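We emphasize that the prediction below concerns an isolated chain of 157 residues; any contacts that depend on oligomerization or on bound cofactors are therefore not represented. The input was used exactly as deposited, without trimming of termini.
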Amino acid sequence: MHRAIDPHSFGFLLTDLARMFRAEFDRRVSESGLGLTAGEARTLAHIARAEGERQTVLAERLNVEAMTLSAMIDRLEARGLVKRKRDPADRRAKCISLTPQADDVLLRVTALAREISEQASRDIDKADWAVASEVLRQARLNMMEARSLPAATDDTA
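Result of the prediction step, given as a token string:
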């Protein structure tokens, strides 16, 4: 039986682009002399995106195990780039924020990501790129909303 799989379907395109972007980001961070792993660089970016977020939420956003993130946070904290604070709502939970020392490092990390985006958008009209970005933002919002909906129930039982 022949199975027709469209290699240009939205899911494949999105996954391939994300994988290639991540691989290029990892390579550039490795060669940058920042003294960070790519995972640590991504962690800094995600902390900047949602300053003061719980460590468990950050691990989910990064799609890493809590212990993996904890080790990265330990290294970033030892370098003076992040700090942990007790969550006032749950003393067992830790919230993570950047220190002022992280600012220069984060500028370099975001510059690397911007260069990769510029490479990806080469030969694409700026207006088209803006539309593509807006469509992806809306798709992300749709998925976030879908995740918050209760699971469908089977009323036939």
